[in-house]
Amino acid sequence: MPAGFTKTDVERLANLARLALTDQETTLFARQLDSILQYADQICRLDTSGVAATAQVLDRQPADRPDEVRPSLAETEALANAPDPAVAEGLFKVPRVLGG
User: Fold this and answer.
1) Is pLDDT at 44 greater than 70 in this prediction?
2) How many beta carbons lie within 10 A of that of residue 26, not counting itself?
3) Which of 26, 31, 37, 91 is most enclosed, with most CB atoms within 10 A?
4) What is the spatial distance between Cα 28 and Cα 5, in angstroms, rounded to a whole number?
């Protein structure tokens, strides 16, 4: 594990995330992130050889209701409420989010 989380590391991450941080915030975040990484390193060093592996920590809860096929809205009814439906394609038109 690296020797510590520095102000330079925080500045680099802030630049990648397009965040404008003050010098005080940079110092604070460097200290906090370094503390988190030290704790994670401490956790990694724990001897878990006697602990059984688990995939789920909670008991499985039954579903609220059985999963069954039921009738739903017809496609035309669902599209009727859309602001700009593509009825022929059976799709909702939405504003472009990626690559626009």
Assistant:
1) yes
2) 19
3) 26
4) 11
pLDDT tens for 50-61 read: 888 877 766 777
10 Å CB burial of residue 76 (0-12, 13-18, 19+) is exposed
Structural domains counted in the chain: 1
Burial (0-12, 13-18, 19+ Cβ within 10 Å), 18: exposed
What is the rounded distance in angstroms from the CA atom of residue 78 to the CA atom of residue 85?
Answer: 10
Query: In 3D, which of 2, 9, 1, 3 has the Cα closest to residue 30?
Result: 9
Specify the 3-state DSSP secondary structure of 36: helix
